[in-house]
Amino acid sequence: MATKLFLACMVLLCFAIAVGAARPATATDDAPPTENCDQDVSDLISTCQDYVKFPANPKIPPSTACCTVVQRVNIPCLCSKVTPTIEQVICMDKVVYVASYCKRPLKPGSNCGINPVPGGSLP
């Protein structure tokens, strides 16, 4: 049970961080992270975990609550927390899908962590 809980928390943390790249860049998004985004991480964990878990398919349209959180997260702060370990825990294809579905698409080829963002649009 503790292992499943830990894995679920890691999945959600990864999603929260990866979604940080979802909003198209603006002047404020290019600034270095100066805020604490722990609340963003917590909110994404509580509302979006079911939409970014492995396996890669099926992709499930996220809830309105999940999209609301995706729309307001602090991109630079979340991206600054991405590690190789986090990128191994979540399904990045699902993160891209959720971000696009929530009208905050990730820019294909942009970096938020170690790997370039794949795709970027709804299938």
TrEMBL record:
<dbReference type="Pfam" id="PF14368">
    <property type="entry name" value="LTP_2"/>
</dbReference>
<feature type="signal peptide">
    <location>
        <begin position="1"/>
        <end position="21"/>
    </location>
</feature>
<dbReference type="InterPro" id="IPR044741">
    <property type="entry name" value="NsLTP-like"/>
</dbReference>
<dbReference type="InterPro" id="IPR016140">
    <property type="entry name" value="Bifunc_inhib/LTP/seed_store"/>
</dbReference>
<protein>
    <recommendedName>
        <fullName>Bifunctional inhibitor/plant lipid transfer protein/seed storage helical domain-containing protein</fullName>
    </recommendedName>
</protein>
<keyword id="KW-0732">Signal</keyword>
<feature type="domain" description="Bifunctional inhibitor/plant lipid transfer protein/seed storage helical">
    <location>
        <begin position="22"/>
        <end position="112"/>
    </location>
</feature>
<dbReference type="InterPro" id="IPR036312">
    <property type="entry name" value="Bifun_inhib/LTP/seed_sf"/>
</dbReference>
